[in-house]
Amino acid sequence: MKFFITGANRGLGLSLTKISLLNGHTVFAGVRGTEEAKIKELLELKETYNENLEIIEIDVQSEDSVLSALAQLKGKTDSIDVLINNAAILNERGKSIEELDMEACRLAFDINILGPIRVVKHFLPLLEKGANQSILNISSEAASLTNSYSGDYAYGISKAALNMLSEKLHCYLRDQDIQVLSIHPGWMKTDMGGENAPLYPMDTGKGIVELAERKKKITSPYVFVDYNGDPMKI
């Protein structure tokens, strides 16, 4: 299978890249910048996996950058099987509604929801060329309406919007057998999750790749699931 993963140079994105390669897949690793220091681990993986790993520069905030990435991708393949919208930002933590910086909120919405919209808008034709394809949007428990809590306004609201995008894409694409899921990856030890998190991204990443491989049956009537494919509270 051929995977395109955004935010692939660190955290969960890097783990998804590693696991996909270990499972014998080809990965197109989307990164915001290609400075050697930022993609050191990807370059090391490239030495091992050669043509099975391609690094593609993409800034999901920029439609021009998404189009440029698409052009790079088309130069290497005419289709992909799995699109994982992983790139995201968690900012304005611990702030009350009165303290929120509106420009910071705008940035979160631009990356966390408009970013996936831009990518799906332009990459969808590459997914439509095969069978059993998937769009996996990395969401969060913070997006749950029934488990809502005070704080993380920009992140939670933008991820709730991502869940709605996933539902709409599911309705639009179900006749084409394109699986669409909005996935809570768990609280992980990453730059975003911090050291107190109980999970490691390699562990949750294995479950997400198995969802892409269709090894797990989804029983939820909604597309919001955890990394094992179990239903999340909407």
Helix-strand layout with pairing:
Layout: E1 2-5, H1 11-22, E2 26-31, H2 40-49, E3 53-57, H3 63-74, E4 82-85, H4 102-127, E5 134-138, H5 153-173, E6 179-184, H6 201-212, E7 224-226
Parallel strand pairs: 1-2, 1-4, 2-3, 4-5, 5-6, 6-7
Number of helices: 6
Share in helix: 25-40%
The helix/strand class is alpha/beta
How many domains in all? 1
Describe the protein.
The protein is built from six helices and seven strands. The protein has helices at 11-22, 40-49, 63-74, 102-127, 153-173, 201-212, and strands at residues 2-5, 26-31, 53-57, 82-85, 134-138, 179-184, 224-226. This is NAD(P)-dependent dehydrogenase (Short-subunit alcohol dehydrogenase family).
Which tags fit this structure?
seven-stranded parallel β-sheet; 40% helix; Rossmann fold; 6 helices; 7 strands; globular; 234 residues; alpha/beta
Short structural description:
This protein has a single domain (2-226), classed as NAD(P)-binding Rossmann-like Domain (Rossmann fold), CATH 3.40.50. The chain is 40% helix and 14% strand. It has 6 helices and 7 strands.
